[in-house]
Amino acid sequence: MVLEDYKEIVGTCAMYTTMAQMLSGTLICRNIYKKGSSKGVDPMPFLGCVGLCILMLRYAWMLNDSTMINVNIFGLLTNMIYMIIYYHYAPNTKEVLKLTYKVTIFVVIFLIYAQMEHPTKVEFRFGIVVTVLLFLLIAAPLVHLKMVIKTKNTEILPFPLIFMGTLVSFQWLLYGFIIDNIFVIFQNAVGFMLNIAQLSLFMIFPSKKSELSDQRKEY
After folding, report:
1. Residue 118 φ/ψ, nearest 5 degrees
2. Closest alpha carbon to 130 in 179, 195, 70, 181
3. What is the pLDDT of residue 4?
């Protein structure tokens, strides 16, 4: 396969672009710092990414893929920092802790499963698990779709994360073809389409200052 000659280049580009995407969370944290509160900011992109990085790290070890291992270690560390910042400025810390406990229990269950599953089956079945969870994380901002359409405002959507996610999913799609891994291909093909769909919302409903803060759920 011609693309195999570019495995290192594509893998390295995908790794650094993914790291840049993870660093885009600093823009959201900067806004939280300026406002002095994380009210109106959904914690799940950060918290969900912490959980997913742990599971993806486990999957990367199964594949013995150093590129994926490095990316997910970096993602785990950066998103833990984001969650600490979010928690520090959260008006309702109990709700944040409740979500954290739920995600922790969820992750532990699947880590135990990966340890107990038969070695010949675990890679395929665990691959299905992380694929489904990745889709849920990417599509998470669509939970606010009703509010976006109602207010004709995309302010509530994390544009930096969605934009960088589009670039990341495209590069990992190429990498998936190179290493011939069906889960990496499928994950990023669907992820790319989901990100494109969310980016289109910014073209239809430009972000603008509004009274959204009164309609958002407090955390």
Report:
1. -60, 135
2. 181
3. 72
